[in-house]
Amino acid sequence: MYLIIVGLGGIGKNLVDIATKDKNDVVVIDELEKRCKEIAEKYDVLTIVGDATQKSTLEEANAQRANALIATTSDDADNLMMALTAKELGTKNTIAVVNQEEHVDMFKKANVSMLENPDMTVARHLYLSAKRPKIKDFLTIGGGKAEIFEVVVSEDSRAVGKVLSQLNIKKGIVVAIERNSDVIMPKGDTVIEAGDQVTIFAKAKEVEAISSLFAHDKVF
Fold this sequence. Notes:
CATH superfamily of the largest domain: NAD(P)-binding Rossmann-like Domain
Radius of gyration: 22 Å
Order of helices and strands: EHEHEHEHEHEHEEEEEH
Structural class: alpha/beta
CATH topology of the largest domain: Rossmann fold
Number of strands: 11
Number of domains: 2
Shape: elongated
Distance between the termini: 49 Å
Strand content: 25-35%
CATH architecture of the largest domain: 3-Layer(aba) Sandwich
CATH class of the largest domain: Alpha Beta
């Protein structure tokens, strides 16, 4: 995949690391020469020092043949301009960070994929991690109304040794079980083992009750 990443703040740097490790062709644009130099010394990427809101800069980055452009700057107006200009040039997919909630509708109307308010997302993740230590990871859906979350089956859980259908999970769906580096697509007769990492989809209000089925001893 040919990928253009704009902005070398924390998000942009991590994106470069992920994208290059996945063997993508990456072009990075940032207005600060120092940032571009530092990233070029560490990764095999093409760097452009310039303003990505300018059409000429995106043309230099060959936006017309890019599979995707990801705008990660702290300025929502700039991110939107970059995405729209890239679309005009022929970039197949555009994604942007949206820092201010009041700008979300603007990006939706422009049909630009987005990550809303990353600072709030991190803060919410940290808070919920502290509140629910049994849950290993999670992703909120529908503005927090539902979650996809992971929980590790504890040794003292009475779910251990039972088949999934016996747990009678009516208000959630077990979508996957990771065991010994293998991924199991669960069925009703799948036996739960200690140490299993169970991925579940449920409404937010049901997360605590469902995770308790796997994370500690509970009478069913």
